[in-house]
Amino acid sequence: MTDKNTIPSSADKILEAATLLFAHDTFSSVSIKKIAAASGVNSALISYYFGGKKNLYQEVLYTQAEKFLKLQNTIRARKESPLTKLRIYVDSIAEMQQAQPYNIHLIYRELLSPQPMFENYVRNKLYRIHQFMAELVDEAIACGEIRTNIKSTHVAFTLEGIIMFFFLTQRQIRDIGNFSKGAEMDYLLQALNTYLSSLSDSEEEQNA
């Protein structure tokens, strides 16, 4: 991604246009012609910079995944407890999606039903987004912050499901909840943190 004070190169324009197109449609439905038209460049430049549509799509996925992987490195370096790190990670993902809501379509579509040609790439890169969340849950269980009868992968999928559903239905949520624009993010963060708080309740409290 280029600095806002610099003029984007043709490669930047192609990558940005392709990201938006692939976020809204499948790999097979987005043509080189569409990408060229959306980016305002000659279609030959797509092959020149990226070696074709397949490589361009992989670069789109790589760019989006790197945002999450950099966030993970930042979270790992923090000194807080595992549960606090998990809260920060979840809140940060929600804020990232708020800034670029189309990202979630790309990332989770490939996580849930990866294109066969990118399956290994998805496992090596994108799966780490989910796995890191599960690792934090395991660490929180080990130090007593989360109940031991909780399965980390279930927690990770639940958190991801809350985030994904919110951003897929954000406009409807705003209307149903009568939220002012932007206030619905407070609702999302509250929902995520309420769920995380429930994980550390004692079994007696849960059965009361």
Secondary-structure map:
Blueprint: H1 10-24, H2 32-39, H3 44-50, H4 53-76, H5 82-99, H6 103-112, H7 119-142, H8 152-168, H9 170-177, H10 184-198, H11 203-207
Helix pairs in contact: 1-2, 1-4, 1-6, 4-5, 4-7, 5-7, 5-10, 7-8, 8-10
Give an overview of the whole structure.
The chain is mainly α. It folds into 2 domains: 8-51, Arc Repressor Mutant, subunit A; 58-207, Tetracycline Repressor, domain 2 (Orthogonal Bundle), CATH 1.10.357.10. It contains 11 helices and no strands. It has helices at 10-24, 32-39, 44-50, 53-76, 82-99, 103-112, 119-142, 152-168, 170-177, 184-198, 203-207. It is globular. Mean pLDDT is 82; it is low at 1-5 and 203-208.
Please name the CATH topology of the largest domain.
Answer: Tetracycline Repressor, domain 2
Main beta-sheet annotation: none
Helix content: over 70%
**Assembly level:** single chain
CATH top level of the largest domain is Mainly Alpha
Shape: globular
State the low-pLDDT regions, or none: 1-5, 203-208
Q: How much of the residues is beta strand, in percent?
A: under 5%
Number of strands: 0
Secondary-structure arrangement, i.e. CATH architecture of the largest domain: Orthogonal Bundle
Order of helices and strands: HHHHHHHHHHH
Report the average pLDDT across residues. Answer: 82
CATH superfamily placement of the largest domain: Tetracycline Repressor, domain 2
Write down the domain tally.
2
Number of DSSP helices?
11
Radius of gyration: 19 Å
The termini sit apart by 51 Å
- Overall structural class, as computed from helix and strand content, comes to mainly alpha
